Amino acid sequence: MARHNGARGWYGKVVGAAVGVTMLAVGASIWTAQADTAGGPAPKHVTSSVKPVDVTIAHSSDRGARGVNITIDDGPDPTWTPQVLAVLKEYGVKATFCMVGTQAQAHPDLVKQVVAAGHRLCDHTVSHDTAMDKKPVSYQSQQILDAERMITEASGGVRPLYYRAPGGAFTPASRKLAASRGMRPLGWNVDTKDFERPGTDAIVATVERELPNGPTLLFHDAGGDRSQTVEALRRVLPELKQQGYSFGFPVR
Hints:
By secondary structure, the protein is of the alpha/beta class. Helices cover 36% and strands 13% of the residues. α2 (81-90) links the parallel β3 (67-73) and β4. Strands 3, 4, 5, 6, 7, 8, 9 and 10 form an eight-stranded parallel β-sheet that branches. The protein has a two-stranded antiparallel ribbon with strand order 1-2. α4 (108-116) crosses α5 (137-155) and α7 runs parallel beside α8. The relative contact order is 0.22. The chain is built from eight helices and ten strands.
């Protein structure tokens, strides 16, 4: 998610829950990433080696110039993630869920629901530290690798395909590490500001105004009351379809 000023009490709880998380054991066989075909059956869990991806920050859609990427950050959350999933299903849209490691660990059933519905997973670190770009590389590595493990375990073996730094706090080292683990660094073009709860009309207006900046839209399904986000998606998705946009995933 984008950087925001002020207190972030929910994330304080996440940080507390993250204490004591151990480093990822590298070198073992891992589960394959999700299938590339949107809307297909849930992927089979087959062992495979990690294939490195591009280290540059992705913004484009795999659907081309008229493609839109819906990305959902900070969950999963037992109240809001099911509602977001229901709206996405209603309009036949696939999205990328950027999950916080501790949230995935706490709600593995929701992670599995996201995967079963054909959506993709993204590593959003263990504790959503928006200042992690100011921390040692060893800390950045722990945040990325432990979250990768936590999300993969929660999903039942499906690995995240992307890495989104909290607040856009990427560093060359974090991008290189994520890419080496097969997770394309993921940015955004449209910050809907839904985290600030500006009202459904304001969220929709932001999408309409800023979509010419690029196809990757940032929403949230955790961190507080996300009812405005749910309603905004309910309005935005059919409107974009009527305008001739198609929904895809960020390029890999």
